[in-house]
């Protein structure tokens, strides 16, 4: 007799096995995980500098705060009388910068709050005391004056006496703060001697730009040179018109441009061969209705003369100025002691037309402009200029920039600038 296959039993067993498998996976897993708790996040740790109980802290100090397992959300600084110090985080978040230098020999409390991923806040504090006023002071200055209007080629210039040693320049440069509206980023560049650092953008400022600058140097350690003397702040604007002057020794003419349009051609007399004018890109540094040139004691000088409508181009004493005594030679012969001589009428017109910070380009003379003899930032190409920075230059500022507009005068090739220490300002032109 044939046996019938036991299909029903087999199917029943298979179904039972499937149910059992499902029951082990679902029910067993739920029971195993029911008693577990989520792991607690690691606690937030905050480190603050200046450190707690630190003494002799420079009054230029910033609050540097770092958070482990969290993010810095608030920094406050109060003095020992409970007064709050204003300030803000740097844009890169590296530190909190007070809006003014701290006081000497004063106690302060830094309070830093950090928050973890779950929103839990942790606050830490550090009390410190600033140093006494130092004996060794570095005299500093900023050429930007509050509320003034300047030409489109004005470089910002900070000067130091004595010079800043090379190893201290990066720390000093970090305290030189510039913002513009509209935004037009630039870079700083040091003279080799360390007595001057200049700031400009790759291209001239846009007319109407608002420039805000702070040289936060009070109490700043500058290596063996000493400590900075003061903070310098200024808000200024760029003139609505772009003026420049191109001077060609071959033609003995000055070509005045406004917004790249030639508006006037002026005969000039430059420095004679024994006292030549400098060739290069300069900017107007100062303007005087009247000033005195005193060259007594100088090898090629010995005279004292009062001149009208004078505009300084170099620290060494080269000016554009009224020279009624040479009007017959202007346009034909060089007779000056290095200055750009123009007629009285023309000098008066130039004083009404130009701004401190306007570009003046001289070509074809016997000597080249020395780097640092004036505000010479525009005598360097952009690639040359950024090599003088003590800090890394942002990537978007590294490509070569557009050069100043080409002059329409003969003899327009620029020779390399020489480098000499910045001379003391003199009125030795003529």
UniProtKB/TrEMBL annotation:
SUPFAM superfamilies cross-referenced by the UniProt entry: L,D-transpeptidase catalytic domain-like
Biased composition (Low complexity): 408-421
Record flagged with keyword Transferase: yes
All residue ranges annotated as the L,D-TPase catalytic domain in the record: 243-370
Entry keywords, A to Z: Acyltransferase, Cell shape, Cell wall biogenesis/degradation, Peptidoglycan synthesis, Signal, Transferase
Signal sequence coordinates: 1-22
Domain of life per record: Bacteria
Coiled-coil regions listed in the entry: none
InterPro entries xref list: Big_10, LD-transpeptidase, LD_TPept_cat_dom, Transpep_catalytic_dom
Pathway: Cell wall biogenesis; peptidoglycan biosynthesis
Annotated region (Disordered), positions in chain: 393-430
Active site: residue positions: 321 (proton donor/acceptor), 339 (nucleophile)
Record has Disulfide bond as a keyword: no
PANTHER family, sorted: L,D-TRANSPEPTIDASE (PTHR30582), L,D-TRANSPEPTIDASE YCIB-RELATED (PTHR30582:SF2)
Protein's name according to its UniProt entry: Ig-like domain-containing protein
